[in-house]
């Protein structure tokens, strides 16, 4: 059993009896009587489950975000594209990695494109050179042994008369070939954050685009990590990269999928879909739980199990990554239903311009939604219950 669950259980049961009874009466959100802490293990090992609860893996039951994919492909395939980079952002678990994987797959299926996925926690220029050199699609361009260069155990053989001094000039040499062959290169980075590898790569990349190579770039990242990159003035091209905020999945598409799998009526499938609020990870979790129960209704037990999995796999991480003030805004919203802008300001006792900073980051993080009338509410399913539970436990320390 994970350590966190043991700690959580111990804390939970240590609340003294009297107080616990009062809590149970007053605070519905603490009512997790049907807790089965083995649930995550059980779901992960369930046979024939059509849903998938692993982050970063393209699920069997995938709801296509075809419009976004087409938009990126059409833009990059334009004769004179006015956008050559995108940043995909949204809350943890909304489907950034899965979306990126689909985009990569589309580009890989086109002859005049090569995609190179880079790990932001390792030296990135090296990775770019090695992956490009190794790319099966263009291997034949580099195999003539007329020029050799060895770097960290990898030896490159290229045709050419320019002296290769370092990994940057090696990369340039390869890009030169690709340019002549009209092959475009797409660099992708999943879960970008500000670090020295990313900074060094982005600076080299900016220099390469200034030199006219056909390079394209897509990164995914949570808003707080992405915005920390924007604050660095030396990374100008990232600043200009349009952001794609990963929207919730369509309720209609989720309902259709549930209806097909569980053979329930339309109304029931729509209720299930609404429960997920379109949050991709919730779609997989609720699907798995309903599949396990074989009883197609959202019972208290399912809600409890849903809360446990969401907390362990997603919400705790989201919570950890928020600043103190962002948490305060979220807690205030969790304690009240839907609030107007001015009600929220009043409760927070915050100046409007200060509030706007947190409002913007929480909107871009996909954690709150604001409608046309300006009222604000939490966006993720049962996040309110998670926040109240966490605030209670943390207040208990
Ligand atoms: N389009 C989709 N249709 C159905 N399920 C999806 C879709 N996209 C993602 N999922 C599911 O949602 C979960 C989270 O997806 P993913 O790992 O892509 O999220 P993420 O935004 O990259 O999260 P993180 O920020 O933590 O890396 C996975 O279980 C995945 O199966
Ligand atoms: Mg991801």
Architecture blueprint of SSEs:
Blueprint: H1 3-14, H2 17-26, H3 39-44, H4 66-77, E1 85-89, H5 96-108, E2 113-118, H6 124-134, E3 148-151, E4 154-157, H7 167-180, E5 184-189, H8 196-210, E6 215-221, H9 223-230, H10 236-240, E7 243-245, H11 251-262, H12 266-276, H13 280-293, H14 300-320, H15 324-335, E8 339-340, H16 341-348, H17 352-364, E9 368-370, E10 375-378, H18 383-395
Parallel strand pairs: 1-6, 1-7, 2-5, 5-6
Antiparallel strand pairs: 3-4, 8-10, 9-10
Helix pairs in contact: 6-7, 11-12, 12-13, 13-14, 14-18, 15-18
Bound molecules: adenosine-5'-triphosphate (ATP) and magnesium ion.
Fold and architecture overview:
The strands form three sheets. A five-stranded parallel sheet has the order 2-5-6-1-7, sandwiched between helices. It is globular. It is built from 18 helices and ten strands. By secondary structure, it is α/β, with parallel strands linked by helices. The protein has a domain at about 65-245: P-loop containing nucleotide triphosphate hydrolases (Rossmann fold), CATH 3.40.50. It has helices spanning about 5-15, 15-25, 40-45, 65-75, 95-110, 125-135, 165-180, 195-210, 225-230, 235-240, 250-260, 265-275, 280-295, 300-320, 325-335, 340-350, 350-365, 385-395; strands spanning about 85-90, 115-120, 150, 155, 185-190, 215-220, 245, 340, 370, 375-380. The chain starts with a helix and ends with a helix. Bound molecules: adenosine-5'-triphosphate and magnesium ion. Adenosine-5'-triphosphate binds next to helix 5 and helix 13.
Task: Record keyword descriptors for this entry.
397 residues, Rossmann fold, five-stranded parallel β-sheet, alpha/beta, globular
